[in-house]
Amino acid sequence: MRSELARLFEAARVPRYTSYPTVPHFSSAVGPAEHAAWLAAVPADRPVSLYLHVPYCRQLCWYCGCTTSIAADDARPAAYAALLAAELELVASHLPGRLPLGHLHWGGGTPTSIGAEAFRRLMARIADRFAVLPDAEKAVEIDPRFLREEMIAALAETGIGRASLGVQSFEPEVQRAINRVQPLDRTLAVIEALRRAGITAINVDLLYGLPRQTVEGCRATVRALLPVLPDRFAIFGYAHLPALKKHQRMIDARELPDAVARVAQFEAMAEELGAAGYVPIGLDHFARPEDPMARAAADGTLRRNFQGYTADPADTLIGVGASAISSFREGYVQNHHELVPWRTAIRAGRLATSRGLVLSDRDRLERALIEQVMCFGAVDLAAIGARFGVRAERCVAAPARLAELERLGVVAREGTVLRVPEIYRPLLRVVAAVFDRYLESSSARHAVAV
Prior knowledge:
Shape: globular
CATH architecture of the largest domain: Alpha-Beta Horseshoe
Structural class: alpha/beta
Largest sheet: 9 strands, mixed
């Protein structure tokens, strides 16, 4: 990307668009009653996805933007797991039957912090309450620093086939600056142990834009991992939001790279992965050509939801756990962020819904446009408009911003098709934002655009 454009968008803050409308627009007008009704209305013959959130980690990483807290021992995560099982029962009791389950994802925090036996019990509970499909993908997020052998055995025994490992950076200075010291040999040993146990699909999460991070360090991090051939890489830009995440105040903002350096770091990692044969996907993912995500990107079925990019085609995502979000045909619901109100609701036998949003037809139209941009870097306004019975020119919420992007070359127009040239892929969120009619009036703080 040209450095002048990076500087132009340095101050721009736009959503990551893992949903639309985005979470800041949820409200308490949607609560447990709507949640229960939407669960009951899920089509009984169509596969659904299940997400379980575990908001505990062994150590606080200062860059983290997730909903998590620190548990120094097993007691609090184990107690949480028992309530997670109770919430699973409660949610399942509202469903129209034992629904087919096509995709299962454990996120956090660090899901493995609940321990091997609790994990086995919860997986058994899921198998009782859902008809897990033979080809269902079962995935878990892992912190390699704290993964024990007994946990690896539990993951394998319960059918986990994909593991996402947090790495971020192998630069020692960066690791110290973000309070996450993670040796390369430990990470490689965990990957080897997982594959030896039969968990063969490996994802790796990296970050750019971290304090003290360098372009050469970014290249070295990728090169260190290439010999073990992870199936996917996700390369996220660090979002420094200390007003929202107070622990990020431990990071010295003066040590953060500017927009030009951030783009250079991303492009360096992308170049290394491209040379190694990885396929670029959407804004920030890369996959081996045979990976399901790469195939979905190639055949036009790639999706984007609260978990990010996915090959999962399900329209219903059921979230369980504190802060978990569910997606239904009718709209979205989110559980309480804080553990105390979430725990109180579950113990009382109530859904722990705190807020949500009812989707309008206009929301669905704009969501379709944004998803196309985020997944494929292109969108046909006429084709999407025809699906919703509107004219192409009415699909753009911010025509002046779109015109400016066209003038700058960030967007190329071919009839009613808008396309983002590959060099400007880091600006996909900026392009998607032209369809977001909520953005101008939003007071929410979002991540920087580049």
